[in-house]
Design a protein that fits this description.
mainly alpha, about 5% strand, 23 helices, 4 strands, about 525 residues, four-stranded mixed β-sheet
Length: about 525
């Protein structure tokens, strides 16, 4: 026995040295990650501030603060005067806690850094996934960058960034298990439990498992059907490990089936192809449609179903465009590499194209790993003192006016103000003034429901019922975007007068005389 141990010792030491060398040697994968961070957040005038163009970030931060203060999740709404104390599901509570903790340490800078690094990590996972599927480093870089650019419309400091990361992770795990049964597929069970508490996008995991199961069924591979079915059952049980139990699932299904949200909430509308970056999505969409025919002919039904489903969903709602890009890119990359292989193989080694092909092949192994320097780079970004980090939301919100009129909006004494504002600004007001203020509406229309949503739209457009609704809710302050028709209607009433205005907002107050 001692002799055997001594014989194995040099190999063990050699393995440890190899592991340490891999951990501490920078890689092309590290360089790719940093390049993505620079391209997304350091080359535009908005920089990291672009992640704060959605007011929902405000109430997410304050929800996390509430949870950290009370050491439990909220079961009733703490933020509104329109539905005070109503039953509410803080279904993204864990993401809210992460944002609140980051905010407590670094302010809004911490929130955008956490969100931005999560987004960059999702592109890195996609890049590594493409390499694993055999796309080659050239296609992997190209398709990853296309995905990053086409997904910009939904890069926001909100919990859905965790779905952008976990979806390619789960697809990679499923693909590896499909290629050869792998015990690691059961990692999907704890991932499902974690994902459920981060964001409602965990439904995408069950969609993927269902499509993989359907593809195996069409092929007649009964053993392959049983495995994802069992994994799905285990994952479904794991999703019950949330503070609201099965009631969360019921609420999410009701939310996803809401016709009002589908018709009136911007991110649930079909994508605008003229939007910056959407041409990349359009190119990927046409590529996916064209390759689906080849996939069906080659009996790769799982890939065809996955790509077809997310293509359909992305055409229905702009918020699903990034999900289509993440699902389609690995499939498109694999198929394009297969189609190109007969042609690239004919290039002479001495030719320019042949040299480029061989260099790409040589660089691929270095791109398939990451080192500890990735964590070091993230820590530097977290702590780096540099100008341009956001100290407040962008000026599409009434930032200056809220500072000037804080005492009016959130009086220290006397009855609280009843402020009418937009749903987006409602989230910002929660961030700036809660608990001194409660809002009429914010971005949580799954909570407010269709009736209040319709009343909010009615007030925004100055509909026939605007007087009735102003009296019903007893508003005494109106902080409104300059383009609201309601402004001129309120100015026509003698009891309403303008208190303050700037290029972003106008503030009106109702007199008590």
């Amino acid at each position: 026995m001692p002799a055997t141990s001594e014989a194995l010792q040099p190999a063990t030491v050699s393995n440890w040295r190899r592991l340490i060398r891999r951990l501490f040697t920078p890689s092309l994968g590290d360089c790719f990650f940093l390049t993505v961070v620079v391209l997304l957040f350091s080359t535009s005038s908005d920089g990291w501030r672009q992640l704060l163009v959605d007011g929902d970030a405000g109430w997410h931060i304050r929800t996390g603060d509430w949870i950290l203060q009370h050491h439990t999740v909220p079961y009733t709404d703490p933020f509104s005067f329109s539905k005070p104390g109503g039953s509410w599901y803080a279904w993204e509570w864990l993401a809210d806690v992460i944002f609140a903790a980051a905010h407590a340490r670094q302010g809004l800078r911490g929130v955008v850094v956490i969100s931005g690094l999560t987004i960059a990590a999702s592109i890195l996972v996609l890049f590594r996934y493409l390499l694993w599927r055999g796309a080659g480093i050239t296609l992997a870089v190209l398709l990853s960058v296309l995905t990053a650019d086409a997904s910009r419309l939904h890069y926001l400091a909100r919990p859905h960034v965790f779905t952008l990361l976990l979806l390619p992770v789960c697809l990679w795990i499923l693909d590896r298990d499909r290629e050869r049964p792998w015990g690691g597929v059961w990692l999907l069970v704890p991932i499902a439990a974690l994902w459920t508490n981060l964001h409602a996008g965990f439904v995408a995991l069950f969609v993927s498992l269902g499509l993989y199961t359907a593809g195996a069924f069409v092929k007649g591979r009964w053993a392959a059907v049983r495995r994802p079915f069992l994994v799905s059952a285990a994952c479904l049980l794991a999703t019950l490990a949330n503070p609201y139990g099965y009631l969360l699932h019921v609420h999410i299904l009701q939310h996803l089936g809401s016709d009002w949200i589908a018709r009136f909430v911007d991110e649930f509308q079909p994508p605008n192809i003229r939007f910056e970056g959407m041409y990349k999505y359009e190119a990927m969409l046409f590529a996916g449609i064209g390759l689906t025919i080849l996939l069906v002919r080659r009996r790769k039904y799982e890939d065809a179903l996955l790509m077809g489903f997310w293509a359909h969903e992305s055409l229905q709602a702009a918020r699903h465009v990034p999900l289509y890009m993440f699902a389609a890119a690995p499939i498109v990359g694999t198929e394009l590499a297969r189609i190109a292989e007969p042609y690239t193989g004919k290039w002479q080694r001495s030719s320019l194209l042949g040299t480029a092909r061989d260099l790409a092949a040589d660089f691929s192994p270095a791109a398939r790993r990451n080192s500890i320097w990735l964590a070091v780079a993230a820590a530097i970004i977290w702590y780096l003192p540099a100008p341009g980090w956001p100290k407040d939301f962008p000026d599409i919100f009434p930032v200056a006016m809220v500072e000037r009129q804080r005492a009016l909006l959130a009086p220290a004494a006397g009855p609280p103000s009843r402020v009418l504002s937009s749903d987006q600004w409602g989230g910002y007001l929660i961030y700036k003034l809660y608990p001194s203020i409660h809002v009429f509406a914010d971005g949580r229309f799954d909570y407010y429901g269709d009736d209040l949503g319709n009343e909010h739209l009615c007030l925004m457009s100055g509909c026939e019922r605007w007087r009735e609704l102003m009296e019903k809710w007893n508003f005494n302050i109106a902080l409104l975007p300059r383009n609201w028709p309601l402004i001129d209607l309120l100015k026509s009433l003698p009891q309403w007068r303008v208190i303050d205005q700037d290029k972003t907002a106008i503030l009106l107050r109702k007199s008590t005389d």
